[in-house]
């Protein structure tokens, strides 16, 4: 069906729901590159006003990618929880926005609603929100996951310790890990992007991380961010905690990544069977990013933010410990500057939380984007206010292997301090026992005799 809205004497027509969602999206370079963006600011406002009047039930009747063509569409429709949807089923998109911002939409209510919302509903309502609306709604959401510690509790912010090295040198990686631990980072995961996807290299790194974790009794989990097929290959040869995979919002995007839902199910089942978690069984780690579908020429006419939120349906299916939008990593072709990166990150975090996902954000940019570390400081602070589950900690904020700019270990300490946030409770206790922090979470002086400094990488 078509949609329309008249501003003064001009009527704007939108042929279908897919077009309406694209035209209503706040401007970003990726949608312009794809030829999907509104031609003028007035057309965007007209699309947003038309979108506000669309009943939520429409999203169950009109798919942006046909059911027959796309397994993610089928997943969304086939797993939709009608009972959870019932309390808001009579709403339009605009009414959902108003309700989400009201006191009636509290934490418990939003947790109960999550299975009843589809990605397209959530993407639609986010397009009607200001940045402060996205922060306000996300702050009310609480999504808690567990493996060896508890991530996502209100008042806490976890950090993925990312000790990447451009040659996977164990000593260089170990130095970064110890540095991060002494800054109180690593409770979300100690996660390495390997320089190669070699099974032997992955096995070596997995053994190294597990030996370090056991030697110092660290209540966290490790992950080598290799391809899911590599993780399946090494599971019988090395200690695999979490299974990682990058995912997208269309079946064609995932096909370009060499994956499909059946393969993810196989990996999920295999990881569960290892039974390595001590307090929970959330065993998956997914990463996403606006623009991935477009960069793979697999967006099928869907705007990049809606594609991104559709990826969250894939993640939700497998009850992950962590979902991370690597928001500025793909480049300025998709998010041109700091303003667009900040907006996209707040959208991703809010939409993921509304769908019941444990959202983290890699506060990052590439060196050819019109962004700088001041933009990242602003975004980091906004995400801390919004209740982000975790961020990334990279030595010096500069990833020497992936060649992009992120947030550093001391950036995590900054946002915890100014907003009164704490690490995951089990990890917080460990930091205090190690003398790294005091009971108030403040970093303590660490001398050169601290036993973490005795660690020797293989």
TrEMBL record:
Cofactors (names): adenosylcob(III)alamin
CC cofactor note: Binds between the large and small subunits.
UniProt xrefs under InterPro entries: Aldolase_TIM, EutB, EutB_dom_2_sf, EutB_N_sf
EC class of the enzyme, as a word: lyase
Catalytic reactions of this protein: ethanolamine = acetaldehyde + NH4(+)
Subcellular localization, as worded in the UniProt entry: Bacterial microcompartment
Pathway field: Amine and polyamine degradation; ethanolamine degradation
Pfam families: EutB
Residues binding adenosylcob(III)alamin: 194, 245, 295, 401
EC number: 4.3.1.7
Top-level taxon in the UniProt lineage: Bacteria
Chief localization: other
Binding site for substrate: 160-162, 193, 287, 362
Keyword entries, A-Z: Bacterial microcompartment, Cobalamin, Cobalt, Lyase
Oligomer status and interactors: The basic unit is a heterodimer which dimerizes to form tetramers. The heterotetramers trimerize; 6 large subunits form a core ring with 6 small subunits projecting outwards.
Family per similarity comment: Belongs to the EutB family.
Function: Catalyzes the deamination of various vicinal amino-alcohols to oxo compounds. Allows this organism to utilize ethanolamine as the sole source of nitrogen and carbon in the presence of vitamin B12.
Protein name stated in the entry: Ethanolamine ammonia-lyase large subunit
Organism annotation: Chitinophaga rhizophila
Taxonomic path: Bacteria, Pseudomonadati, Bacteroidota, Chitinophagia, Chitinophagales
């Amino acid at each position: 069906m078509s949609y329309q809205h008249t501003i003064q004497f001009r009527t704007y027509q939108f042929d279908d729901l897919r077009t309406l969602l694209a035209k209503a999206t706040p401007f970003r370079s990726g949608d312009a590159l794809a030829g999907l963006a509104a031609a003028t600011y007035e057309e965007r406002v007209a699309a947003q006003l038309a979108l506000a009047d669309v009943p939520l039930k429409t999203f169950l009747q009109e798919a942006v990618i046909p059911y027959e063509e796309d397994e993610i569409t089928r997943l969304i429709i086939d797993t939709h929880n009608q009972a959870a949807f019932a309390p808001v089923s009579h709403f339009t998109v605009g009414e959902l926005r108003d309700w989400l911002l009201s006191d009636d939409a509290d934490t418990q209510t939003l947790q109960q609603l999550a299975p009843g919302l589809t990605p397209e509903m959530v993407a639609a309502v986010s397009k009607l929100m200001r940045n402060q609306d996205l922060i306000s709604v996300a702050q009310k959401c609480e999504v808690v996951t567990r493996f060896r510690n508890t991530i996502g509790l209100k008042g806490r912010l976890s950090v993925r310790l990312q000790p990447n090295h451009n040659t996977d040198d164990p000593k260089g990686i170990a130095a970064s890990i110890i540095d991060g631990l002494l800054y109180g980072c690593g409770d979300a995961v100690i996660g390495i992007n390997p320089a190669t996807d070699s099974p032997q290299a992955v096995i070596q790194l997995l053994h190294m991380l597990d030996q370090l974790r056991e030697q110092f009794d660290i209540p966290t989990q490790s992950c080598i961010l290799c391809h899911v097929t590599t993780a399946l290959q090494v599971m019988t040869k090395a200690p695999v905690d979490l299974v990682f995979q990058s995912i997208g919002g269309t079946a064609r995007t995932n096909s370009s990544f060499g994956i499909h839902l059946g393969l993810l199910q196989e990996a999920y089942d295999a990881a569960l069977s290892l039974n390595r978690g001590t307090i929970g069984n959330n065993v998956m780690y997914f990463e996403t990013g606006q623009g991935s579908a477009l960069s793979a020429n697999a967006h099928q006419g869907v705007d990049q933010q809606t594609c991104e939120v559709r990826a969250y349906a894939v993640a939700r299916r497998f009850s992950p410990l962590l979902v991370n939008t690597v928001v500025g990593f793909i480049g300025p072709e998709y998010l041109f500057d700091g303003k667009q990166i900040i907006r996209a990150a707040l959208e991703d975090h809010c939409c993921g939380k509304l769908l019941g996902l444990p959202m983290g954000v890699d506060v990052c940019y590439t060196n050819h984007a019109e962004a700088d570390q001041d933009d990242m400081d602003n975004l980091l602070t906004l995400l801390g206010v919004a209740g982000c589950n975790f961020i990334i900690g990279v030595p010096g904020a500069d990833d020497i292997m992936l060649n992009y700019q992120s947030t550093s270990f001391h950036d995590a300490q900054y946002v915890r301090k100014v907003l009164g946030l704490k690490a995951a409770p089990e990890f917080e206790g460990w930091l205090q026992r190690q003398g790294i922090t005091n009971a108030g979470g403040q970093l303590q002086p660490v001398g050169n005799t601290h036993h973490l400094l005795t660690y020797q990488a293989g």
